[in-house]
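Supplementary Note 3. Input sequence used for the single-chain structure prediction.
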Amino acid sequence: MTQGKLRWGILSTAQIARKNWKAIRNSGNSTVVAVASRDMAKCQRFIESCQCEAPMESVPQSFGSYQELLASPNVDAVYIPLPTGLRKEWVIRAAQSGKHVVCEKPCAVGLNDLKEMVDACKANGVQFMDGVMFMHSRRLDKIREVLDQKEDIGQIKRIATSFSFRADDNFYLENIRANSLLEPHGCLGDLGWYCIRFALWVMNEELPHRVVGRILSSSQGDQNSLHVPTEFSGELYFSNGVSSGFYCSFLVHDDQSATINGTAGYLHLADFVVPFFGNEVSFRIDRSALNVVGCDFYMEARRPEIFVNEYSSSHATAQETNLFRNFVDQVRSGNLNAQWPEIALNTQKIMQACYESAVSGGVPVHLSSGI
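The predicted structure, written as discrete structure tokens, is reproduced below.
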């Protein structure tokens, strides 16, 4: 291993792992040393493909089982993009093997499962973090600056997010996100997790006191699968009068927008999850005003756009690279960051409450302040 770099293993050859392979390479403080798959040939093809595009210093070792990788003394941390239905087992096993963990989202099937996962990591002295990339974008620092100074937005009253893509017919037959055994929350887990996370971030991790969820449509992947949500809407209500609504769907064209409405103006991101391609990320502040002069009604545009120097992807400054760089810096500090697991638990708790409300016909679910 190159001195000072954290050595990563990847459990599975999921498509998202390709992006994070490159992020690990670009981080400057990490390297991939191993990949595991139950199909050895598939594992080797994955390594060859990624190594060709984004080569590591040494060709990573291929393993034909996840446990073999976890038993390797050459691996310090693991990235786990396995299906949600499998994550609990392998996060716990990774923790028991002394490996730090970055886990894809949604982290678990249920809140109690995630508690067990987080507890296992804490008990074994390893760091846990979920894989929400936008949390590591420097754009959030600038947005927080605007929200805190209140001049442009004023008092926050409403947060609205939407995250969707239109899936083709094969998606429902072949993709794990339509399989109730592997991804029981469907679009709510795959997409709604980001919407909930953004709202909690805006609210400085304050939890809503009440949530309402609605399954707008669902689909059955195959005869062995129950229906999973393919279109979902939710409402979160906070004690200070702020409300947050979200919509997630596999049925409509790509959308990943977020708006924060306040008493003085609003802030809008058209790409809050995956930034649009380019070497800058941005957001817009809107303080437009209606001027009435006699019979004339003029809407005056006051819409400055704020830019942050950060590449959208596949770069040393990109948010996915920052995720791994920040994680490794935390591990190297010798201290565990308790906030990252807590944020994942908060998100899981709200997601589960929204789902429980939805399957009960939209009956509000009231939440306690504790996890």
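The CA atoms of residues 137 and 319 lie 5 Å apart. The chain has ten helices and 17 strands.
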